[in-house]
């Protein structure tokens, strides 16, 4: 019976570790979209600067 209990313990630790990994993946996915959204912002600013340059040329 003790051996069976020992086997159940690692089984319980397995699923728990898997859940932690899933949470980490969720965090990475949340961070990646934020970075992707932050990139378009500077792009918009550059477009505005380019428009200002064109106006100056006129």
TrEMBL record:
Q: Where is this region: Disordered?
A: 1-42
Compositional bias (Basic and acidic residues): 1-10, 21-33
Protein name per Swiss-Prot or TrEMBL: Uncharacterized protein
